Amino acid sequence: MEPKTITLVQESFEKVKPIASTAAKIFYTKLFELDPALKPLFPSNDEDMVIQGNKLMVMLSSAVAGLSNLEMLIPVLQNLGKRHVEYKVEPFHYQTVGEALLGTLAVGLGDDFTPEVKEAWTNVYGTMSSVMIDASY
How far apart are the first and last CA of the chain? Predict the structure, then answer.
């Protein structure tokens, strides 16, 4: 992975951290708009969805930080992918999640979500999701 790609993703994610809970809400709203059939895979009450959103942001933060050390990140992503199989996540869901993530970043970063930042996130998410899928299916 190109160092510039890692830097763009890490720097842009730093701007998302202060709005992490809002970003999580935006993400799940977008995810369920893109594929309402995913909603049953998640908690049905608001309190549990807040917890789920926190887990998402912690995981994303760890993954973004780990981009600087891919040897350590890859086994974590592989295990995460295997756990998602238990949650009934299918390989095609990863594309929808990617779309929801990019949409969330576009809203959360506003003008800072430049085409270059979008491309960097697209590459990083593509790599991470491929590792998760390859380890799980």
Answer: 24
What is the per-residue pLDDT across 42-73, written as a single tens digit (0 to 9) for each?
A: 999 999 999 999 999 999 999 999 999 999 99
C-alpha span between 41 and 43 (Å, rounded) = 7
- What DSSP string runs through 69-119? -HHHHHHHHHHHHHHHHHTT--TTHHHHHHHHHHHHHHHHHGGG--HHHHH
Determine the pLDDT at residue 42. 95
The structure tokens listed for 90 are 């299918």
The letter for the amino acid at 38 is L
pTM, two decimals, is 0.94
Rg of the chain on CA atoms, in Å: 14
CA distance linking residue 130 with residue 133, whole number of Å: 5
- Contacts of residue 13, defined as CB under 8 A and 6 or more positions apart, other chains included, come to 60, 61, 64
Q: 């369920």: which residue's tokens?
A: 32
